[in-house]
Amino acid sequence: MKTLVWVEHDNTSVKDATLAVVTAASQLGEVHLVVAGSGCAAVADEAAKIAGVGKVHLADSPAYENALAENVAPLIVELMGHHDAFVAPATSNGKNIAPRVAALLDVVQVSEILSVESANTFTRPIYAGNAIATVQAPAGKLVLTVRGTAFVKAERTGGNGTVEAVGGAGDAGLSSFVGAEISKSERPELTSAKIIVSGGRALQNSENFHTLIEPLADKLGAGVGASRAAVDAGYVPNDYQVGQTGKIVAPEIYIAVGISGAIQHLAGMKDSKVIIAINKDEDAPIFQVADVGLVGDLFKIVPELTGKL
Predict the structure, then answer these.
(1) CATH 3.40.50.620 in the chain, residues?
(2) Which residues make beta-bridge pairs with 69?
(3) In this predicted structure, what is the pLDDT of residue 245?
(4) Would you say 263 is a known binding-site residue?
(5) Which residues form the Electron transfer flavoprotein alpha/beta-subunit N-terminal domain (predicted)?
(6) Is 242 annotated as a binding residue?
(7) How many CB atoms lie within 10 A of CB 28?
(8) 180 annotated as a binding-site residue
(9) pLDDT tens profile 223-267
(10) Residue 262 assigned to a binding site
(11) 61 annotated as ligand-binding
């Protein structure tokens, strides 16, 4: 079986989300990658070095610069003539592209797989991760998205794949890129951070979030996350959100500050190795999954903790 993996990148380098997908795809068969972007030859060269990769298909065109799914999906479908499965990370781009590919191929998509049981059988979370379903895809081509926290990341070096330039239909004329407001930070990106400090609605406002959460994160060299309630309240941008409708993370240490532990938030972080919760409500659901729980006023505990580091 030949698998085609969507490479998540920023036209400069390969993102970590791709590495777990390569591991998942390698359990199905021969791994080929597709790098679609603009001025992204360096990304293809980097991708070819990933352990286990046999070939990299490079589609370099302005039409693919911003990974618009309406442009990328037809390219993937063309390449699927020589592949048995398309596998993408369960990122915003992956979740946008994969359903369109499945629709064009007229096949069923299996979303956010956690394991590969056989060539067409997989496990995936349901009920916000509270149950795991085993699903079997119908015969034919496969379209999958992969939950990155469930698979070990492939090594960035050790591979000797070849790069092959491919063409595509280009701009489908169905959508256009207007702009993006992306927050920039020196801190680790959430999906690759080994330590994450997240804040919730109990922080009360944006100023408290920044003055309490960020110093603690800086002391720990951690990424900064937030609950959906904190994001909806405008404390921080959307890309900070951890949860079922945000980013799925599994760091070595996850510190939840003022987060009650709603089901949708737990679905995004409960695979963390060690969970530390700080909340004044001793009955908060977060304490049911926490390895370490501190019951008390976060406005006193967090500055004291930061000061002792």
Answers:
(1) 2-165
(2) none
(3) 86
(4) yes
(5) 3-181
(6) yes
(7) 20
(8) no
(9) 999 999 999 999 999 989 999 889 999 999 999 999 999 999 999
(10) yes
(11) no
What does the chain come to in residues? Answer: 309
CATH code, 195-308: 3.40.50.1220
32 is in an annotated binding site: no
Q: Say if residue 221 carries a ligand binding annotation.
A: no
Per-residue pLDDT tens over the stretch 258-269? 999 999 999 999
Q: Has 265 been labeled as part of a binding site? A: yes
* Superfamily for the 2-165 domain: HUPs (3.40.50.620)
The residue type of 262 is A
Q: Is 295 left (phi over 0), alpha (psi -120 to 50) or beta?
A: beta
How far, in Å, are 132, 229, 235, 239 from residue 87 at the CA level? 20, 32, 35, 23
- pLDDT(183) > 70: no
Confidence grade of residue 169 (pLDDT, cut at 50, 70, 90) = confident
Contacts of residue 66, defined as CB under 8 A and 6 or more positions apart, other chains included, come to: 177, 180
Q: Is 258 annotated as a binding residue?
A: yes
CB 122 within 8 Å of CB 90: no
pTM of the predicted model, to two decimals?
Answer: 0.84
